[in-house]
Amino acid sequence: MAMNYNAKDEVDGGPPGAPGGAAKNRRPDNTAFKQQRLPAWQPILTAGTVLPTFFIIGLIFIPIGIGIFVTSNNIREIEIDYTGTEPSSPCNKCLFPNATPCFCTINFTLEQSFEGNVFMYYGLSNFYQNHRRYVKSRDDSQLNGDASALLNPSKECEPYRRNEDKPIAPCGAIANSMFNDTLELFLISNESQSTPIPLQRKGIAWWTDKNVKFRNPPGGKDLEERFKGTTKPVNWVKPVYMLDSDPNNSGFINEDFIVWMRTAALPTFRKLYRLIERRNDLHPTLPAGQYYLNITYNYPVHSFDGRKRMILSTISWMGGKNPFLGIAYITIGSISFLLGVVLLVINHKYRNSSNTADITI
Amino acid sequence: MSTGRDSETTFEEDSQPNDEVVPYSDDETEDELEDQGPAVEPEQNRVNRETEEKRETFKKDCTWQVKANDRSFHEQPQFMNTKFFCIKESKYSSNAIKTYKYNAFTFLPMNLFEQFKRAANFYFLVLLILQAIPQITTLAWYTTLVPLLMVLGITAIKDLVDDVARHKMDKEINNRTCEVIKDGRFKTAKWKEVQVGDVIRLKKNDFIPADILLLSSSEPNSLCYVETAELDGETNLKFRMALESTHEHLQREHSLAAFDGFIECEEPNNRLDKFTGTLFWRNMSFPLDADKILLRGCVIRNTDFCHGLVIFAGADTKIMRNSGKTRFKRTKIDYLMNYMVYTIFVVLILLSAGLAIGHAYWEAQVGNYSWYLYDGEDATPSYRGFLNFWGYIIVLNTMVPISLYVSVEVIRLGQSYFINWDLQMYYPEKDTPAKARTTTLNEQLGQIHYIFSDKTGTLTQNIMTFKKCCINGQIYGDPRDVSLHSHSKIEQVDFSWNTYADGKLAFYDHYLIEQIQTGKESEVRQFFFLLAICHTVMVERIDGQLNYQAASPDEGALVSAARNFGFAFLARTQNTITISEMGTKRTYHVLAILDFNSDRKRMSIIVRTPEGNIRLYCKGADTVIYERLHPMNPTKQETQDALDIFANETLRTLCLCYKEIEEKEFAEWNKKFVAASVAPTNRDEALDKVYEEIEKDLILLGATAIEDKLQDGVPETISKLAKADIKIWVLTGDKKETAENIGFACELLTEETTICYGEDISSLLHTRMENQRNRGGVYAKLIPPVHEPFFTPGENRALIITGSWLNEILLEKKTKRSKILKLKFPRTEEERRMRSQSKRRLEIKKEQQQKNFVDLACECSAVICCRVTPKQKAMVVDLVKRYKKAVTLAIGDGANDVNMIKTAHIGVGISGQEGMQAVMSSDYSFAQFRYLQRLLLVHGRWSYIRMCKFLRYFFYKNFAFTLVHFWYSFFNGYSAQTAYEDWFITLYNVLYSSLPVLLMGLLDQDVSDKLSLRFPGLYVVGQRDLLFNYKRFFVSLLHGVLTSMVLFFIPLGAYLQTVGQDGEAPSDYQSFAVTIASALIITVNFQIGLDTSYWTFVNAFSIFGSIALYFGIMFDFHSAGIHVLFPSAFQFTGTASNALRQPYIWLTIILTVAVCLLPVVAIRFLSMTIWPSESDKIQKHRKRLKAEEQWKRRPSMFRRGASSRRSAYAFSHQRGYADLISSGRSIRRKRSPLDAIIADGTAEYRRTVES
């Protein structure tokens, strides 16, 4: 009886037990949800759906991978290590602590010209900007221009919270360890003459950072007045309001500072340093030829075996040079395609048996 | 309950177990029996103590004092118990009951306290405290607090709802009303106002508000009928009788108001059938026993009103003492889950320790030289490592899923609702839906191995119907002329000629009616006349309709049948019976009633006809009747054949016979009878002997056949469950024959089954024990157990064993053992050691024996235990639980099943019957046995599959989520830096990944309910723990680990040296976190999509909704507005918009998700193709199966071959009302004065002796 029972029959037939209907009826509702009869799609992994998926994924991924790979390969990039650990390096002299300020110059050659906008990065390695103690050592309220936080920074900033009884602005280990090398680029047009490459220092930070996250404290017109009562971070030479002569790029909204404050994910990282804008004429931005890099070497990395690099790079629709993603896509696409073939064979082999196999229970 | 009077029987040494009796009374609790054998004690001390105890017994036991109509008495200081320090409380509870746990003020602290008692919640509290320590905090405080608050909140709300319901229920009960004497008059009062010592008045059909002493009632002799269904599940009426003196003097209101009796009795206890006390009144003392007490929860029936004195109120009442203490049951998966959580916890500690060591090393190698990390503290690397250990405990805490327990609760609750809502388990006739009373056991329903079923009321309806009879060798009852009426509906017999017919009997043999009406064969009329006169049924007229009250349903069925066939039993007085014989009323003088008991297996009545003849009418089991027949009985053989036929149709049979008695013979016998009925000792035996003398040379009239109606669909259900590899054991208090009969009726036993009885297996077990002893002696345990079957495999065997044999086999002879121990006391150290050694040996032997028995019983396809006490039922369940480690389910309807229901892993109560005891202590209840197949095969299986899928996924998703931190550690100096934003960690478990898996846990079905029922073999996965075990668990963890690796290393590769499309370097920490988090959310939500086999729109909505919710919330949290409001709480400003603008990052996310999911798809597809499970196959062929849905149910085949199976006989398990009838107490006369009753000779003698 229970087997042939059909809930619908009973409902159409009316409730058999309660003719009066006056008594409290405890009969459950006959709704699709309560009877667990919700209309549903019951997908099964059949050959008809699985195999095409693998082939299609293979067919999509491989072209994408090739596209990324080609794009990545078309990007011009040059990387110059100026750490100076090798004795032959011009910057080797700067490794000694007494030699400050220290200037050094590195020559290099661009084999091919760089076209379009060129971006200048500095890269650090073995530098743990993602260390927990380091990452949290900042006060976002202070950086956001909060007047009270300016004079009373968060405890997270310890031990770079106060210096000589004055609050440090900007406080914390990140700000204190800001990258302070100066890099200048010159093109050697002929034997004696060299032209400096114009480097833009603005437009290197995220818009949101520059306009939302980082704001100078409120107050008077003069930046110095706004930062009154604070002191510079211990390692800095100049206070924060003198980072740049341009008041729109000084104080907390200095873009070099903002870039530094956006901590890196990995111990080897690069950060955007300057922009070299494309010129209007048909000349390439950086023509092939001899260049030299003037470095004001301030930032010590030797103690922790760090490296410092200067990178020049053009970009494409998908960013800078990075072969990983292209290769990964090609690999995964090919594996997927192969897997499709393997599955097809296996399915073919077992199809007969699975079709005739009767349910044994 | 069938304990009754047989319970006093104890075992004789060396005697064979008696199949008829129920072994020992349940009154003796385990402890009491143990207590009888004091361990070690010098002789003299013992003697002294015993004499002392005897003297004090009375005093010690009767410390409960009640004074009638005197409330101030009970408020005296000596009745006050100190509770806290100085708050005193009366030891007399008020009658208000309180089942709720909290009130408005205590809710919050008490609920929180209770919740933190749970290990998981406490763990998170500890984490929260750890996070408050600045040196080691690695996560923002809210990451743990928010989920914890949500978990606590959900649980608290659930508790609150439950408690509010309890409040309501209490209020409803406490505000019921009854009449109480106040200021000399009866006034209506609420139950909660009733107090100990109050005199109350109850009316017909009232519930009794407290345990009261019956003082008087409207009935003669102050009898009072009560229905005790709520207490013990027995639906027949019981009578209680007041003391004679209170009956005489306490009828009027003013006398009741002046009543000043004083009662001393035992303290409140939970024994329903025992009470000792003394009433002191008017300078006399009267002993009180349980027959004078009306218990709370019973209902007054057939009594216009009664008066009583409240002795125990509220929490002291026996029903309240009996409730409570419900054992907290947990499922197998619960235990497994706990172990897994411990495993994860160990993994967590190991990982943290490893990373902490890594950190110490790194600090020594790199950190100490990195000037930019200077933090002003000169901590050594190892100290930093130590701090980081705790830091990692916090960071990785999400491996132990905080929302696991609450999600499991929610899923189980939902599944319980689905059970409650199931229309196919709703019984319209009684308006009873199924009910999951416990909401924590659902998945266990999918793992049942053994079902222990009660018989009466569970397998059978406990409705007896008169089916057939054999009169003078001729069988009546089958429809005649089958050939003629084969296609038309067989007509029922029309009883309209008979004014007394109740119209409920369905009978198809018209020929019998003809026979009665024509009166051609005198035996036919005599047959029904016998049925109408030989019984102990009481009759009552309600609205002019006859209403019979029988001690057993069998007897009721027979008397009703006689009534329908024209011989209506109309009235009974103490010594007359009036019968309407085909319309003419005749009154017979009853000379003696020879009542039924289980030894006699028959009852007789001796009457004097109006003509003056004396006749004996007798009905009883064929075995006893045939021994006492007159040798010249012509129809003996024919009746014997008829009995065989009836028995094969699983009908319950009785033989009827009569004899004429000479006046002289009777007078002689009557003398002996009167003498025996007043015999001072061994009266029952003396009476039996006298009865024997007259019950001989009987003339056989015929035999009746009664059908013990099975519940609907029982055989089908049993065969379904058997196909699902579930073993069914029937445990019943019934007789062996009856139980065996039912076994055949419900196809548990078939003709091919070889049945083993107690003696067979006893010898088998004995041989086995001998073998084991020879092999290893006492140290048999040390030898690895070899499993050798008791029987040759392949044979279909069943075991039928009685309670007495069970005791014999399982060495549970307690009375005997304690007797031996009592005999002598060990004097020396030596002896004592020997004693304890032998005791230990006995224990080992007992254990071995029990194990052997369980092994043997489990080899049988069916086991029927009959004549077992409630305690033995529980014991059998416990044995299987203990030695088979199998999941058990007990199903029953009566109070005698409560023990078993509470013992089994899952207890099911049959509801809709009058008794509620079984239901109250059960975990699930429904109205019909056949719903069991749906409960197990559909709900149980689904619940199990859902829970397993849920748990597997849950562990997977948390591992995939958490271990990314672990991989990231290698790139951040093991500094416990998290790989995600704090808010993401906070919300991951509660918002982003919880809903789809919850919905899958609630709604998923691999195959539909119809297919689940059609292929019971699908159930096996649960029994074998195939879907969730340690292997599956580790596979899930491995899956999680691999996913986390992919989630971390692919973005890592992409981020190594990338720049954004604007030239900005997006390789910052925040973009990295967003990339991984997005990939994670998409992966886990798609993964649950793959796991879901039943996609409803809710599932689809929740999966895509979760992903959308993630992006929505993330963009909100990263927006400018929220940063301006809380700059330090939301630091990821602009990350989402900047990072997700980059096609590069999207490509990374897509690649990550694809690499996570594609292997899963491939592996699933491969396993489905190469090793498809049964469920996979059915899913694959779903459409085809649906097409053939119109398959026909196999007609149930009763294999009735020629067999020599001898029948059961039908009779009550209790003595009838004969004593009561002959005492004249219950017979309703027109308020006859007491003297009139006392005047009667025989009856009066017996009454005085008895009372």
UniProtKB/TrEMBL annotation, chain A:
Keywords recorded for this protein, A-Z: Cell membrane, Cytoplasmic vesicle, Disulfide bond, Glycoprotein, Golgi apparatus, Lipid transport, Membrane, Transmembrane, Transmembrane helix, Transport
Positions of the UniProt region annotated as Disordered: 1-28
Gene Ontology biological-process entries: phospholipid translocation
Location in or out of the cell: Apical cell membrane; Cytoplasmic vesicle, Secretory vesicle membrane; Golgi apparatus; Membrane
Signal sequence range: none
Recorded topology in the membrane: Multi-pass membrane protein
TM ranges: 44-70, 324-346
Superkingdom of the source species: Eukaryota
GO cellular component: apical plasma membrane; endoplasmic reticulum; Golgi apparatus; transport vesicle membrane
InterPro entries for the chain: CDC50/LEM3_fam
Family named by the database record: Belongs to the CDC50/LEM3 family.
Listed name of the protein: Cell cycle control protein
Protein source organism: Erinaceus europaeus
Upper classification of the organism: Eukaryota, Metazoa, Chordata, Craniata, Vertebrata
From TrEMBL, chain B:
SUPFAM superfamilies from the UniProt entry: Calcium ATPase, transduction domain A, Calcium ATPase, transmembrane domain M, HAD-like, Metal cation-transporting ATPase, ATP-binding domain N
GO BP term, example: Golgi organization
Annotated binding of ATP, by residue: D454, K455, T456, E555, F596, K619, R652, T732, G733, D734, R867, K873, N896, D897
InterPro entries referenced in this protein's UniProt entry, alphabetically: ATPase_P-typ_cyto_dom_N, ATPase_P-typ_P_site, ATPase_P-typ_TM_dom_sf, ATPase_P-typ_transduc_dom_A_sf, ATPase_P-type_domA, HAD-like_sf, HAD_sf, P-type_ATPase_IV
GO molecular function, one term: magnesium ion binding
PROSITE patterns in the record: ATPASE_E1_E2 (PS00154)
Name of the molecule in the record: Phospholipid-transporting ATPase
Source species: Erinaceus europaeus (Western European hedgehog)
